[in-house]
Amino acid sequence: MCALTITARKSTKANAPLASDTENTEKNIVMNTRALNLWYGENHALKNINLPMLENDVTAIIGPSGCGKSTYIKTLNRMVELVPNVRISGEILYRDRNIFDKTYLVEELRTRVGMVFQKPNPFPKSIFDNVAYGPKIHGIRDKKILKEIVEKSLRGAAIWEEVKDRLNENAYGLSGGQQQRLCIARCLAIEPDVILMDEPTSALDPKSTLKVEELIQELKEKYSIIIVTHNMQQAARISDKTAFFLNGEVIEYDNTDLIFSTPNDKRTEDYITGRFG
Amino acid sequence: MSKTVGVKDLIQKKDKLSKMKSGVEKSIPVFLFCLASISVLTTVGIVSTLVYETFLFFKDVSLIEFFTTTELKPLSPVEPKFSILPLLTGTVMTSLVAMLVAIPIGLTTAVFLSEYASPAVRKVLKPLIEVLAGIPTIVYGFFAFTFVTPLLREFIPALGATNALSPGIVMGIMIIPLVASLSEDAMNSVPNAMREGAMALGATKLEVTLRVVIPAAISGIIASFVLGISRAIGETMIVTIASGSSKNFTFDITQSMQTMTAYIVEVTSGDAASGTTAYYSLYAVAFTLFVFTLLMNMFARYISRKYREAY
């Protein structure tokens, strides 16, 4: 596995060297975006994105509305291709393999790179069936094993205690925060490698948000997490690295503490101090 | 008056109308209720007529004869026999054939339209399919009799000139747009977020369709089946033309059978004099038909409620 190197860094638009390069040489790059461009029809939505993301890190993507951060995270598991008239150039290497490669099945990618959405989107099925859905479509039929997976995933998403007595009830009976943790459990059930989170707490109340944030801290032990967030405090609280997007470009990408304490770019500073966005 | 418009004054002026207004407001619900009662009263009227005349019929013919014997000879001068069973099998068999055609084709059409077709294709295809629904049933009946039956006889030599198979198939074709259109509506209203949730777990399009979209839309889909079955049971013209009028108690779809609806057509356009048992048998048959579809609908409601996935 290639360690984070200066080359990966050089190609980003931000011109400051990554101060933390030396600290991070131990960590592998899990997803490496290189010269990524994306167009919605004529609209150039992502412009020459270069972002190496590290294993077992929480990488936050921040930026004002319409900056392309949601588009970017959806590109990482190729969900963006569901939008008509999307064109993509460049490459994204997941564990050194280009996800746009013709031989790379999109289903295979999404099994490794899971996703949690902005609005909780459980299936209108029982809590159990929601979590068991992923393992089932990937061929796990054994009831006993499914039961174990469901319990493990629900525990992993810190919701087991709340739902263990009502596994057969419809997931839509849960509160919004519980639904979101259920969706995280659903994602964990197929043991992905990377978890993408697209503003996972924006539809939740502060208490549920806190729970999900704590959960993210636990999850990073085992998973690499990439999270889009509108909430800069949230990025500061939970992430190791932060990328600041503006108008489809990466303005700055660095360790979170550096981004929030001594940003290199004036625009980053303006954004995090709340001067716009 | 000053140049600025006094909105307050205008509002007060309008208040003067309020007495009249409240009168109108009060009479509107009464008016609406009257119009709404028309359909309710009609239903009550029809059902009570049916029940009354059916009652008269069962003065002459026992329930046991009606439901357990198998011979139907309403106009026989010597010894008329009244059994509903030949008509029931006729109705059930033709409807069964129709649904065997309409459900798989209608549902796959709906899946294609809702999940696979591009918006452009869908925009062309959906109205085209719905054109099928606009064809008068007499045309379908004619089509069954003069085209489908001869065609089928090439493959099944034993097929009668009138039979249950051919009108069954044609009724099925007639019902496809209904099943397809309603099922498609049901699938289309499943939120995209659910499809995305499944796709993000690595589900293929087929897995998303079969294990998320269809289960989530199942109550609408079942409703479309039931409407289809009700259409098939109530369909008259196609079976009258292409299924013949043999009152056979049989399950052999290559033979001529008469459905309940076709029987009513035959007897009303025939020689049954008012007041005869044959005449009253119409009501008994119609009442059976009514109960049949009613049970069908209740059963479907139960099924769709049981499997409903609320979101």
UniProtKB/TrEMBL annotation, chain A:
GO BP annotation list: phosphate ion transmembrane transport
Highest taxon of the lineage: Bacteria
GO cellular component: membrane
CDD domains: ABC_PstB_phosphate_transporter
Domain called ABC transporter: residue spans: 31-272
GO terms assigned for molecular function: ATP binding; ATP hydrolysis activity; phosphate transmembrane transporter activity
Alphabetized InterPro entries for the sequence: AAA+_ATPase, ABC_transporter-like_ATP-bd, ABC_transporter-like_CS, P-loop_NTPase, PstB-like
Keywords: ATP-binding, Nucleotide-binding, Transport
Tagged with keyword ATP-binding: yes
Xref: NCBIfam families: 3a0107s01c2 (TIGR00972)
Protein name: Phosphate transport system ATP-binding protein
Record organism: Evansella caseinilytica
Source lineage: Bacteria, Bacillati, Bacillota, Bacilli, Bacillales
Automatic annotation (TrEMBL), chain B:
Transmembrane regions: 28-52, 84-107, 128-152, 164-187, 208-229, 278-300
InterPro entries assigned to the protein according to its UniProt record, in alphabetical order: MetI-like, MetI-like_sf, Phosphate_PstC
Subcellular location: Cell membrane; Membrane
Keyword flag Transmembrane helix: yes
PROSITE patterns in alphabetical order: ABC_TM1
Entry membrane topology: Multi-pass membrane protein
Descriptive protein name: Phosphate transport system permease protein
